[in-house]
Design a protein that fits this description.
The chain is mainly alpha-helical. It contains 12 helices and 8 strands. The chain has a 3-stranded antiparallel β-sheet. Strands 7-6-8 form a 3-stranded mixed β-sheet.
Length: about 325
């Protein structure tokens, strides 16, 4: 995960739950709340009767052999999070674990917590392709491509951006050949290239004395921005805060990744029809310079939030 630039503030081992006594303490806590009963020599959690539960049956916590099921330490783990002050708990599951969501939500209710404070994100499978040809993998045969191998071939930026483009509940067809292309067909290259191009415009502006290196940007003057391509960029930039709120609301980066694609798409017609450094009117040139500075900064901020680099030259 470090290669993918993903860092954990707290890496929690299941063995810690047993070593700290959190598992039996959680069982006692559930008993104190009247959520546990015994049947057939086993200890059960009455999830079906828990307030706010969406589970369809009760679940075994301790087998008749005296050994806990995997469900009990899972509950202990979530209880520990709430005990540490968490107000919102988020789990990430693979598609084959979607059935685990109702019982976990029921367990949260059994702990006396608001079920809506628990959120599960279920990710669908990723299918790898090389162009139109599927990359065959088999768990049974032990034939698979690791994330490390994917990063080594396609690069971290492409991997992170491609993953961010889709909602978690939709399948992703990851084209390795497309991810390596240095062209506008490649989504991450498409966005990064706009950032690099704007940086190039600023270097050119410094050469023509439109704006010297390190000099403050001109004050905004939107009355000089009248072309449809200019107005379209202004309106798109205004939506950036809402896009960030959508990403938070959906617990997914896909609104941001798609927004950056759309912003980059609007920049290209602007670049073709609205010259900056060579504009006839210096005031128009300054207004456009400020506009593209906003595009540059939003792309840099957005890519940074996605963990993707913003090259100044490509």
């Amino acid at each position: 995960m470090k290669v993918f630039d993903t860092h954990f503030d707290r890496w929690y081992l299941e063995s810690e739950l047993f070593a700290s006594g959190a598992v039996p303490k959680t069982l006692e806590y559930l008993k104190s709340r009247g959520m546990v009963f015994e049947k057939d020599g086993a200890v059960w959690l009455g999830t079906a009767a828990a307030e706010g539960s969406t589970d369809d049956k009760d679940r075994v916590l301790v087998k008749s052999t005296g050994k806990p099921t995997y469900f009990l330490p899972d509950i202990a783990y979530h209880k520990d999070k709430y005990d540490r002050g968490f107000e919102r708990v988020i789990d990430i599951f693979g598609a084959d674990h979607h059935g685990y969501v109702p019982r976990m939500k029921a367990a949260i209710a059994a702990l006396g917590k608001e079920p809506d404070s628990y959120h599960a994100i279920v990710h669908q499978l990723i299918h790898l392709f090389r162009g139109t040809e599927a990359v065959k993998m088999s768990k049974r045969a032990g034939a698979f491509i690791s994330l490390r191998e994917l990063i080594e071939e396609a690069g971290k930026d492409a991997c992170r951006f491609f993953f961010a483009l889709r909602t978690p509940d939709s399948h992703l067809n990851f084209d390795l050949e497309l991810a390596k292309k240095q062209s506008s067909e490649n989504p991450v290259f498409y966005v990064q290239y706009v950032h690099a191009r704007i940086c190039s415009i600023f270097r050119k502006a410094a050469e023509t004395d439109l704006r010297k290196e390190g000099e403050d940007l001109p004050m905004p003057n939107a009355r000089y921005l009248t072309a449809p391509e200019e107005r379209a960029l202004l309106l798109k930039l205004a939506w950036f805060p809402e896009v960030l709120l959508d990403s938070e609301r959906f617990l997914s980066p896909h609104p941001l990744a798609n927004y950056l694609m759309e912003l980059a798409g609007l920049f290209h017609p602007f670049y073709e029809k609205c010259p900056v450094a060579t504009a006839d009117d210096p005031e128009v040139a300054k207004a456009r310079l400020l506009l593209i500075a906003g595009v540059r900064d939003v792309i840099r901020e957005g890519l940074g939030l996605l963990g993707v680099s913003s090259p100044e030259q490509m």
